[in-house]
From TrEMBL:
Its main location: secreted. Belongs to the glycosyl hydrolase 16 family. XTH group 1 subfamily. SUPFAM superfamilies: Concanavalin A-like lectins/glucanases. GO terms for molecular function: hydrolase activity, hydrolyzing O-glycosyl compounds; xyloglucan:xyloglucosyl transferase activity. It comes from Lithospermum erythrorhizon (Purple gromwell). Contains at least one intrachain disulfide bond essential for its enzymatic activity. Its EC number is 2.4.1.207. InterPro entries: Beta-glucanase-like, Beta-glucanase/XTH, Beta_glucanase, ConA-like_dom_sf, GH16_AS, XET_C, XTH. This is Xyloglucan endotransglucosylase/hydrolase. The active site is at residues 109, 113.
Amino acid sequence: MASLGYSKLKNVVPFLLLHVLATLLCAYARPATFNQDFRITWSDSHIKQIEGGRAIQLVLDQNSGCGFASKYQYLYGRVSMKIKLIPGDSAGTVTAFYMNSDTDSVRDELDFEFLGNRTGQPYTVQTNIYAHGKGDREQRVNLWFDPAAAYHTYAIQWNHHQIVFYVDEVPIRVYKNNEAKGIPYPKSQPMGVYSTLWEADDWATRGGLEKINWSKAPFYAYYKDFDIEGCPVPGPANCVSNMKNWWEGSAFQALSPVEARRYRWVRMNHMIYDYCTDRSRFPVTPPECRAGI
Ligand SMILES: *[C@@H]1O[C@H](CO)[C@@H](O)[C@H](O)[C@H]1NC(C)=O
Ligand SMILES: *[C@@H]1O[C@H](CO)[C@@H](O)[C@H](O)[C@H]1NC(C)=O
């Protein structure tokens, strides 16, 4: 076969298109991997692939922290990863896992921030939500297990009805779409998936009371089992509006009774800060706190 004539090409093109389409569709049907779906955004020398590429190790030392981000942005879906946090004296370190629209003025952002602590003291998980450029919605819970002893799954689920932050199977935060009541909700800007490990002892440790102990450095955090199920942007145009995506299903529009019970348990036993009840910061209760969950 010396050359591919026009008539042959005509037969080949539809197959090529099908192939491209199949690849695009598969891009969000398969489990995410670090190499295919993420890129290093800060200090390559501090991020190392381990276990034959199945997991990665992030390092924080006196020279630098580090970070990585997804190659694509996503509009709605579920993002999760398993993380094993810094053991021992981790006070002053912050390990973050978040989604961010990467837009300066009207930022949307969904944050998990793991604040280290002195040996034996519980890690604090801070969550925050920016909608249409406004944040200041911090909540903090103490974890009921040692997150440095083993990997645990941290997930953000985002659909047209609600945003839920999960620690393993336990919802620790719910933000409802109350746009009908005039409350902003992230709904039109795609967000990338990010993670960073850095030093923030000026604010993370009870307002800067505890300093990072550099003689314990380097500090290591571990990640694996990246999973992104969502609508990649750029990607299939009708994905975002497709209400048949599993994460839009009725089972995900509100917490199940079991989840609601777990969520109440977290709020009663592990919540240590809620901006909704911080009268010194917000003499007038923010509207989304009044709208109910
Ligand atoms: C660290 O532990 C102390 C004592 O249990 C607790 O009050 C605090 O919220 C924890 N978290 C941080 C970030 O200091
Ligand atoms: C910092 O770590 C060193 C080495 O483990 C220890 O000797 C020292 O007491 C620690 N300092 C603080 C303030 O905890």
